[in-house]
Write a structure and sequence with these properties.
Number of helices: 5
Distance between the termini: 29 Å
Strand content: 15-25%
Number of strands: 4
Strand order of the largest sheet: 1-2-4-3
Shape: globular
Order of helices and strands: HHEHEHEHE
Helix content: 25-40%
Largest sheet: 4 strands, antiparallel
Structural class: alpha+beta
Amino acid sequence: MTLEIIKNRRSIRKYKPAPVSEEKIGAMLEAAMLAPSACNTRPWRFIVITSREMLDRLAEVHPYAKMLTTAPLCIAVIALPETQKRDDNLPEGFFPQDCGAATQNILLQAEAMGLGTCWCGLYPKETTQKAVGDALEIPAGEIPFALIAVGEKDESPNPRGKYDAERVTRIS
């Protein structure tokens, strides 16, 4: 079943105007927070955006997030790199992998519930991070990592990926 969800997931850029229920938002956030992270540091927080004004503003400041003009919801993934800076020899700097895993969990949970998503990356593009950070009033020390457009699909794009055995090396 999980492989089918992965195969069916697409980047959706057109959404129907129907709101996303609080139950579904909660399920996506729970899935995000169940993602693995280095030494369970969980270097993330999330901003749930349903304000049409803010969705439109984010579509203006992020050059590849125009789909937010039709999406009823955006989940912003905010990295908290300071959570991985401790005095107990914890490896630092794993927040990109950790926030990427949390983001992917949101995408897959949304697909499992019949919703469409589009992952709009921010990190490591400093100019886009700053523009989105300013719009969302993100405090210093936190990093806008990604915006995820979410909503009921109003398009059905064709598959783009596939298994490619030539990209696999085996060591036995």
